[in-house]
Structure prediction request, 620 residues.
Amino acid sequence: MTLLTRTEEVTPAPVARGRRPAPDGRSRLGRGSAVGLGVGVLWLSLLVLLPIAALASTAFEDGFGAFRDAVTTPEAVATIRFTVGAALLVTAVNAVIGTLVAWVLVRDDFWGKRAVEVVIDIPFALPTIVAGLVLISLYGPQGPFGVNLVGTQAGVVLALLFVTLPFVVRSVQPVLIDMERDVEEAAASLGASGATTFRRIVLPTIAPSIVSGAALSFARALGEFGSVILISANLIGKTQVSSAYVLKLIESQDPVGAASVAVLLLVVAVVVLVLLDALQRRTARRG
Amino acid sequence: MSIVVRGVNRWFGTFPALTDIDLDVPAGGLTALLGPSGGGKSTLLRIIAGLDHPDTGTIEIAGRDATALPPQRRSVGFVFQHYAAFKHLSTRRNVAFGLEIRRRPKDEVRKRVDELLELVHLEQLADRLPSELSGGQRQRMALARALAVQPEVLLLDEPFGALDAQVRKELRDWLRRLHDEVHVTTLFVTHDQEEALEVADTIVVINQGRIEQVGSPAELYDRPANEFVMQFLGPTTRLGGRLVRPHDIEIVEDDRPGALPVTVTRLLRVGYEVRAETRAEDGSTPWVQLTRGQADGLGLTEGQRVWLRPHASAAAVPVSSPALVPSSASGPA
Prediction:
């Protein structure tokens, strides 16, 4: 495989771009950094790059035509469209609400704050299938609120919101804690309103953490299975998520189709992550 | 008067941070709020800026009652001890911030920012980020940023407190010269009596939430209102129930009226000065600060018996309790 030879090439190459070259013109890594880099690249290769390469090679096993056919069946298009759309929606909501929750947790003192701190992490701690059961008992046909979300797209979005809640909160919180209050006071004494200070001073500072939390939410939402599978009822063309679709393809002995859909999702994920990064850079520059 | 503070009290819980503060800060002056840490001086500055609120009392800035105004509308420039730089913005954008949010025309902003960067000698570093500036440069940037919006008063909270001694001294001289150029009413907080004596026209000594004395540096040094002020402004020593400055004591070799007989216990040379530590019969241990020339002229030796008396013009206050002395300003005990 091409991957392994690439690993060997990377190790001696001058990877640290920001580093000033040594006086003799060659860039050098200390022994410690060289070992660190080597281990890091090897680890990444084994855990991430290798499986991705295997996935890609399976997807294109029968040529590009087979890949295209696999991802353009009406069922595939519908499920990918719905999954990506739901993930984007969930990501956007999390970016706003998660930041708000983090803000309240850092800046406000209220009774029960410690309890809320613990509650935030519950979606992480709960096995996702249990989360699915809980949601169905609350928002299912026998739910206490009389709201039946089983088999609806709203139900899927709700489940995704539940499991991705902590990402933005937990990534923004430490940055807000570290942020010096005098910076906001300086902006205020220069005449900036609260909204202006937030937009031009606070937001650029926390934008990278919002983006990294949002990226994690998006990734998680894109691949979520356990919490969604019950409430979605897996209705083809309506609430079927792509992870369920992939499972179905595997179960029906179509590994190429499954890998193809997975590769497409991967590409979508990369594109979205790159866009999010660009957005963050723009926010930071604008000030 | 540019800032008028009347009857200000402020409690943090049950702790009285400020008690019955009345203060007039003259327009165009450079006034220091001097006192030990935790004495309330920063709290007073923040209350004037609108960053904190008084529990009672009023604040007037440039003839306007500002007590209920938010910081945005007080026309106050504030400089923080730790710079409070906008880390994601270049030096130029930091300085321009106040003008940009007022939506001034771009040309005007650029012109004004150029002027200010020149004033604080940062024109070469206009495009650097704060992280690429030294502490002194960051503080000059913060000062330019505060001046950009042409505030009625400039408030500086321990502006040089985070800098090393050499830079602190340079910036101190520079602030003095800048103030002579710009003439904006300036109030700055410091716990460094040397800084206050060197830079300020007027010093306000604050201790335990109360104003101890207000006056020019010379007035405070020569006519301290009480023991605290005397001790805070420089080294002191006790001589026969009075507090005097060790350089205001004369050593004589015979008994004269008002002189205290002592024995020289130790002679210590510190650079250009000589410290003579002595012991009196009542057990007190006054010390005298002399120049090397004076010490040599007297031919002082350890164990010698001499008489001490304050100079005729010496500042002196009666001693009540010895416990108030902050150790940093008291010299060898």
In short: The radius of gyration of chain A is 23 Å. Residues 67-286 of chain A form a domain with the MetI-like fold fold (CATH 1.10.3720.10). Chain A touches chain B through 20 residues (CB under 8 Å).
